[in-house]
From TrEMBL:
GO terms for cellular component: microtubule. The keyword Transmembrane does not apply. GO terms for molecular function: tubulin binding. Its main location: cytoplasm. Keywords: Cytoplasm, Cytoskeleton, Microtubule. One of its GO terms (biological process) is microtubule polymerization. Residues 134-152 have a biased composition (Basic and acidic residues). Belongs to the TPPP family. This is Tubulin polymerization-promoting protein family member 3. The keyword Acetylation does not apply. The gene is TPPP3. It is found in: Cytoplasm, Cytoskeleton. It comes from the Eukaryota. It comes from Oreochromis niloticus. SUPFAM superfamilies: EF-hand.
Length: 178
């Protein structure tokens, strides 16, 4: 039973990497890029026994000739290929179990994801209350952007000049004269 649970975790890891960074991915196929990411994140690539090149070669070896992705079965074959190289002192079965342990339950790590800089300089530059000139018009008091209203002069086609104070009083004047 233990092996079955491990396979579940392996499949889960495979699916998570398969959809990583691809909005259209179904989770059934793994691209070369995500295969390389999986190997890197799960520390299969150790820089000594296995390098990025080895990983690419194995990917090319297990995929179908015309295909650009590998499915779960091919993924397992690829791990079998890499296992003895990664764990040199172990038997084929032990090496395979060790490599499965590296991958199981893992998900893509987002190393180097850009974080929002919080420095006084940035705070000062993004403080909308200190804006002057035309930029001041683009934000309300709370610092929320006004959108198009703040950028463009929206024209009202009333027929009156922009700064005319008595707009809309014509009818009352004409009726008063009669």
């Amino acid at each position: 039973m233990a092996e079955n649970a491990d396979m579940e975790q392996l499949l889960t890891a495979f699916r998570k990497f398969a959809v990583h960074g691809d909005t259209k991915a179904t989770g059934k196929d793994l691209t070369g890029k995500n295969w390389a990411k999986l190997c890197k994140d799960c520390k299969i690539i150790d820089g000594k026994n296995i390098t990025g090149t080895d990983v690419d070669i194995v990917f090319s070896k297990v995929k179908q000739k015309t295909s650009r992705v590998i499915n779960y079965e091919e993924f397992q074959k690829a791990l079998e290929e890499l296992a003895p190289k990664r764990f040199k002192g172990q038997s084929k079965e032990e090496a395979l179990q060790s490599i499965h342990k590296l991958v199981e339950g893992r998900e893509p790590t987002n190393v180097g994801v850009t974080k929002v800089a919080k420095t006084p300089a940035v705070d000062r530059l993004t403080d909308t209350s200190r804006y002057t000139g035309s930029h001041k018009e683009r934000f309300d008091e709370s610092g929320k952007g006004k959108g198009r209203e703040g950028r463009e002069e929206i024209v009202e086609n009333t027929g009156y000049v922009g700064a005319y104070k008595n707009a809309g009083t014509y009818d009352t004047k004409v009726k008063a004269e009669k």
